[in-house]
């Protein structure tokens, strides 16, 4: 556990030398992404943020962008429109960013939702929550790695469920297409584990880039309703009567969540580069302190999940990455 007081003290040291100068937030129009943008902008540093969101989010995002400009006139937020559940649109978004920037310092990924309802596919044939939570994230990373490599202290932060991987991954039906396979618990476990497997591969291949898979804990952002197809269904009543009240009762405040994710995005506690950190350094999945993939819990401490990951490296790593590469191939 990293004390919240120490996190705030570290964040207070963020300046123009240690802050990301160019950041890309995918999923920053609401929830943890938006909270983290606000915490970053509030530091007063000069930076540029590409805020990626769907067309329907623009009106809400426009007000937020103006609010951030009023908070810090040196923070320039660029609205970047696209439906990121579609890999073809992710490809276009990345092409636009690459045409404008020479480097990227931070890629922050929060897209996705818990699928309480039935399986639903995009026009590209991918289940929507899996496309958002896994495939589009991996495509953003692969597309933007050349710009991340040109940064002095590049970082990729994916917010989902780092440290909660399971060894019982379905390798025969990776996309859970067979009847009876798709469901909330199984899908979330599958996507979480796939994120960690692939991020570790990418971290190993790109040692200059620090990767973080974050488990944020409960934060009352209201996004829990995103995966509910019918508010009057059993699951809709379950979320309303039980889950949402529990989240409100036990969750972090938005301010604390923002500070914790700002810490993960900037502190030298993870990988040795960034805002100075004198506390205990984080340790990655390979039990090292520099580079690699860090599985960061909701209290900002690291886990290696050694028993599970050792099994996954042996039996699942190649199969998952081969499958992922095949899906992403037309868009890379």
Explain what the structure shows.
This protein starts with a helix and ends with a helix. The longest helix is centred in the middle third of the chain and has 22 residues, at 184-205. With 332 residues, it is of the alpha/beta class. Helices cover 43% and strands 12% of the residues. Strands 3-2-1-4-5-6-7-8 form an eight-stranded mixed β-sheet, sandwiched between helices. It has helices at 4-11, 31-41, 58-71, 87-100, 128-148, 184-205, 234-250, 254-266, 306-315, 317-328; strands at 22-26, 47-53, 75-81, 106-109, 155-159, 210-214, 293-296, 302-303. Helix 5 (128-148) links the parallel strand 4 (106-109) and strand 5 (155-159). The model is unreliable at 232-250 (pLDDT under 50). Helix 4 packs parallel to helix 5 and helix 5 (128-148) runs parallel beside helix 6 (184-205).
Largest sheet: 8 strands, mixed
Mean pLDDT: 90
Distinct helical segment count: 10
Helix-strand string: HEHEHEHEHEHEHHEEHH
Helix content: 40-55%
Strand order of the largest sheet: 3-2-1-4-5-6-7-8
Features:
eight-stranded mixed β-sheet, 332 residues, globular, alpha/beta
Topology record:
Blueprint: H1 4-11, E1 22-26, H2 31-41, E2 47-53, H3 58-71, E3 75-81, H4 87-100, E4 106-109, H5 128-148, E5 155-159, H6 184-205, E6 210-214, H7 234-250, H8 254-266, E7 293-296, E8 302-303, H9 306-315, H10 317-328
Parallel strand pairs: 1-2, 1-4, 2-3, 4-5, 5-6, 6-7
Antiparallel strand pairs: 7-8
Helix pairs in contact: 1-8, 2-8, 4-5, 5-6, 6-10
């Amino acid at each position: 556990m990293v004390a919240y007081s120490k996190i705030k003290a570290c964040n207070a040291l963020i300046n123009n030398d240690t802050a990301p100068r160019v950041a890309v937030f995918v999923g920053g129009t609401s929830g943890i992404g938006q909270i983290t943008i606000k915490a970053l902008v509030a530091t007063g540093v000069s930076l540029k943020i590409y805020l990626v969101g769907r067309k329907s989010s623009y009106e809400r995002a426009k007000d937020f962008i103006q609010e951030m400009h009023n908070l810090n006139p040196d923070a320039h937020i660029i609205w970047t429109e696209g439906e990121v559940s579609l890999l073809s649109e992710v490809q276009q978004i990345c092409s636009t960013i690459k045409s404008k920037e020479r480097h990227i310092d931070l890629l922050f990924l929060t897209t996705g939702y818990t699928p309480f309802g039935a399986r639903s596919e995009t026009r590209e044939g991918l289940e929507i929550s899996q496309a958002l939570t896994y495939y589009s994230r991996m495509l953003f990373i692969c597309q933007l790695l050349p710009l991340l490599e040109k940064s002095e202290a590049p970082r990729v932060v994916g917010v989902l469920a780092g440290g909660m991987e399971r060894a019982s991954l379905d390798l025969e039906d990776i996309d859970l297409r067979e009847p009876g396979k798709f469901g909330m618990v199984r899908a979330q476990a599958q996507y979480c584990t796939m994120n960690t497997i692939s991020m570790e591969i990418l971290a190993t291949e790109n040692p200059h880039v620090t990767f973080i898979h974050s488990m944020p804990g409960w934060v009352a952002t209201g996004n829990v309703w995103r995966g509910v197809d019918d508010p009057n269904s059993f699951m809709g009543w379950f979320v309303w009567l039980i889950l949402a009240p529990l989240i409100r009762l036990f969750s972090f405040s938005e301010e604390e969540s923002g500070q914790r994710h700002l810490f993960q995005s900037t502190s030298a506690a993870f990988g040795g580069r960034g805002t100075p950190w004198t506390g205990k350094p984080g340790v990655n999945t390979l039990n090292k302190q520099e580079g690699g993939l860090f599985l960061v819990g909701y209290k900002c401490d690291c886990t290696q999940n050694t028993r599970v990951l050792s099994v996954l490296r042996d039996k699942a790593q190649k199969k998952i990455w081969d499958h992922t590469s095949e899906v992403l191939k037309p868009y890379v």
